[in-house]
Amino acid sequence: MKKLSIIAVFVLAIVAWSCSDTSRNPGKAYMPDMAYSVAVESYTPLDTFKALGINYNAKPVPGTIKRGEMFPFPIAHDKQGETVNYEASKAVPNPITAMSPEQHTEAERLYLINCGICHGAKLDGAGVLHKRSDGTDGPYAAAPANLATNATYVNMPAGQMMYSVTYGKNLMGSYASQLSTTQRWMVIAYVKAKQAEANGAATEEAKPAAADTTAKK
C-alpha cells in the first residue's frame, strides 16, 4: 500500500511538471518567419508588418507580369520638359490587330466608363464633364479632344495614344492604374476602329473580327 502511494505521488509529480509552463519555451527559432506563419489579412496596414520586422509592401516583384496579361508598354515616361520618348512611341504598334465581337463589346464598355465621360460616347468630345457654351452638362470649361474627326488624333499612331493613356498628357491623367496593359490596347483599337468608321476608311485591322458562322460537324 505504501509502495502504491509512493508511485501515485511520483506519477502526479510527473504530470504536474509536464503541465508547467517552464517546459513550453521552445528556445530560439532559426527561421521564425517559416516556423510561425503571419497571416496577411485584407487591408492590413503596412505598418503592422514593419512592427513585426517583416519586409512587405503589397507590391508585386518588379518585372512580374500577370498570367495572360500583355507585356508592359516598352517606352518609359519622358523626363520633365522632354518629348523624346513621346516621339519614339509612334513606332510601337498595337499588338491587338483585330478583336472578336466580344472583345469589341468589352472595349466599348471600357471606353464609355473611362473615356466617354470626357471624349463622349461618339468620340466627338461631347462628354458629360464638358460644360457647353449654353451652360449645360459638366463643370469643366476645357473642351476634350474630338477623337472622331480631328486630324491630329485620327492620324495619331496607336503607340502614341498608348503613351498618353499610360502616362497622361496635358489635362488628361494616367489611366495605368484603372486599365491593364491589355485593356488600354483594346480601348485604343476600339478608338481606331471608330475613327475609321467616322472617316469612311475602315481597315481590316481596325474592324472587329467577324463571328465564326461555320457549321460545326
From TrEMBL:
SUPFAM superfamilies assigned to the protein according to its UniProt record, in alphabetical order: Cytochrome c
Record Pfam families: Cytochrome_CBB3 (PF13442)
Alphabetical list of PROSITE patterns matching this protein: CYTC
Gene3D superfamilies linked: Cytochrome c-like domain
A molecular function (GO) term: heme binding
Residue stretches making up the Cytochrome c domain: 102-195
Keywords of this entry: Heme, Iron, Metal-binding, Signal
Leader sequence residues: 1-23
Full protein name: Quinol:cytochrome c oxidoreductase monoheme cytochrome subunit
Organism field: Pseudobacter ginsenosidimutans
